[in-house]
Amino acid sequence: MTDSLSSTRSIVKYNQQQFSTLEDEIVIEFPLTIYINNEEFATMVCSPRDFAEMVIGFLASEGVIRFKKEIKDLTIDEDRGFAYVELHSTDIKNQQYFSKRFIGSCCGKSRQFYFQNDVRTAKTSMSSTTITAEQCISLMKKMQDSSLVFKNTGGVHNAALCSADELIVNRSDIGRHNALDKLYGHSLLNGIAVRDKILVFSGRISSEILTKAAKIGVGIVLSKSAPTDLAIQLAEDLNITAVGFIRGSSFNIYSHPERIVLDQTNETKEESS
After folding, report:
1. Model confidence at 123, in pLDDT bands (50, 70, 90)?
2. For the purposes of burial, counting CB atoms within 10 Å of the CB of 81, is it exposed (0-12), middle (13-18) or buried (19 or more)?
3. According to the model, what pLDDT value does residue 167 have?
4. In this structure, are strands 71-77 and 39-46 parallel, antiparallel, or unpaired?
5. Is residue 107 annotated as part of the catalytic site, yes or no?
6. From the centroid of its chain, how far is CA 52?
7. CA pair distance 114, 122, nearest whole angstrom
8. With bands split at pLDDT 50, 70 and 90, how would you rate the model's confidence at 154?
9. Torsion-angle region of residue 50: left (phi > 0), alpha (psi -120 to 50) or beta?
10. Which candidate in 46, 106, 107, 136 is catalytic?
């Protein structure tokens, strides 16, 4: 199959009371079914690139694995749309909770999770990283400028794992959760310490996105869009700084504002890994 994330097709465009025919670039939607130890586990609808990263990040996010070393073998059949995962363990952790909705509390807090495995895998951030307001704006611009697929199609979500100054890795996908899973998988595959990193995201910060960020382990989430009320509650409880509406030269800080500073001489405090 092609490595492209988009295809070209003829469309009819209406503009100023006229119809015209032109070629347009359309994002590709691809189903990938994951098998674990020869048992069907889940089907993901995604953009057709970075499959291994996405599968590993997804399994870690769902609590099936914690480390890359738990995977004995991973084979991607791109032509047929299958990912075959063989674990060293024959017991799939948390499989019984995969599709069961769960709302509960944790450690006396008012955290509300949709799935029981979220309670086990979402981490309270221990990050002491701080970044300047200008760095927030700069990172968002760098992420948006790096995505040619979004510029050409408008049909993908963008996400990037960053230091205070630079993008470390960026990924695009039609699924917002997939984009984050790809970042998580890349971090696990390459041994990247994430506690001092920043997550930059193009979409709305929903409770699910905030939970994904907590599972990855970052302490700062930057978005060009809005957060939900539940996402802000979770960010407060999980010690995550949530920043939204980063557009032009302004943004809003919704939780733990102490990590966003003005002083250029106090740009970033990074913990030893």
Report:
1. confident
2. middle
3. 97
4. unpaired
5. yes
6. 15
7. 12
8. confident
9. left
10. 107
pLDDT for 95: 52
Strands 198-201 and 18-27: unpaired
Residue indicated by tokens 């040619």? 148
CATH code, 131-266: 3.40.140.10
Is pLDDT of 4 > 90?
A: no
Q: CB of 234 within 8 A of CB of 214?
A: yes
Six token digits for residue 183? 């970042």
List pLDDT tens digits, range 97-117.
444 333 333 333 434 555 556
Residues of the chain with CATH 3.10.20.10: 30-121
Q: Give the right CATH number for 30-121 from 1.10.10.10, 3.40.50.10470, 3.10.20.10, 3.30.70.20.
A: 3.10.20.10
- pLDDT tens per residue across span 217-230: 999 999 999 999 98
Q: What is the model's pTM?
A: 0.84
